[in-house]
Design brief:
Layout lengths: L1 H18 L5 H23 L7 H25 L5 H8 L2 H12 L7 H18 L9 H23 L10 H24 L12 H29 L1 H4 L2 H16 L6 H18 L1 H6 L1
Helix pairs in contact: 1-9, 1-11, 2-3, 2-8, 2-9, 3-7, 3-8, 4-7, 5-7, 6-11, 6-12, 8-9
């Protein structure tokens, strides 16, 4: 499930890169979560499930939407208007570093250990090796702020992983939780996007192209709706620290997708980077270490 999730999110950087050429960042994020919410509620109805009625649960879903969608999506999409998607994905891969620390401080059963920290650092080095050491453009004011924005987004993802643990004991289906989360995000984002970006132009010469709409729909249905169903299933079964490891796998998925569908060449550094990521994940998991012992 973690690998499948990394493939779904690996494509999101590409689709966002297509959409930002014609649509403002907040409009993209609002369309993404709004269309994902519609998709998920249709699935909920087909499955015969019911939405939660408790105000307490809905407040928790809105809080999850803020930490897991509104804040990071907005910051990452805005950041990608100033820096390349490769650098954005490297900065996003710091999520497990933040995650080990945040989960270690706030969750009694996920304390940070030296082995976990070593595993995360090894995996992060694998990401940097695969993508290359990015140029940290500290000259351009916008580029510097964009890099900081994506680091804050990674920190927000870390807090979301910890916050999301509360849904485990609520007896809710992952589909319902995912639907509730993106619905909460939509309710927060829609008025903000309308105020800042205005209504998007849907007709005429200034309307987004077919390619942009395909990117938005793919981003909403696959990289958001389906992805968050998997996200909450993994969070319930494997914990907050492990769910954040997906950001180490996202660059692997992006590079492999580029190789398979865009015929981009795979070089030796990519394989070394993937090996380091695999090693880092194995160290964090712990079972391989115990087997060796």
């Amino acid at each position: 499930m973690l690998i499948t999730l990394s493939v779904l999110w690996g494509g999101s950087f590409f689709f966002v890169g297509v959409a930002v050429a014609e649509l403002p960042p907040l409009t993209i994020v609002t369309l993404r979560v709004g269309l994902a919410a519609i998709t998920l509620w249709v699935i909920v109805l087909i499955m015969g499930l019911r939405p939660p009625k408790s105000i307490k649960i809905w407040l928790a879903l809105i809080g999850m939407g803020l930490l897991n969608n509104v804040i990071p999506f907005s910051l990452i999409v805005w950041g990608q208007t100033h820096i390349a998607s490769g650098l954005a994905s490297v900065l996003n891969a710091t999520t497990p570093l933040f995650g080990v620390v945040v989960a270690g401080l706030l969750l009694a059963d996920e304390r940070a250990t030296p082995l976990k920290l070593v595993g995360v650092v090894v995996g992060f080095l694998g990401v940097v090796m695969m993508i290359g050491v990015p140029t940290l453009d500290m000259v351009g004011h916008g580029a510097t702020l964009a890099q900081i924005a994506i680091l804050v987004a990674a920190l927000s993802y870390a807090f979301a992983g910890v916050f999301g643990r509360r849904f485990k004991g609520m007896g809710l289906s992952p589909v319902v939780i995912a639907a509730g989360q993106v619905t909460g995000s939509s309710l927060v984002l829609a008025p903000v996007a309308l105020y800042i970006d205005g209504l998007p132009t849907l007709l005429g010469t200034d309307a987004p192209s077919l390619g942009t709409w395909v990117a938005i729909l793919t981003l909403a249905v696959f990289s958001t709706a389906l992805a968050y169903v998997l996200y909450f299933k993994i969070l319930a079964s494997a914990g907050a620290t492990n769910i954040m490891l997906v950001t180490l796998l996202v660059p692997v998925s992006a590079i492999l997708l580029g190789s398979f569908f865009l015929h981009e060449a795979l070089e030796w550094v990519h394989f070394v980077g993937m090996g380091l990521i695999a090693m880092g994940l194995a160290v964090i998991d712990g079972r391989l270490i115990r087997l060796v012992r």
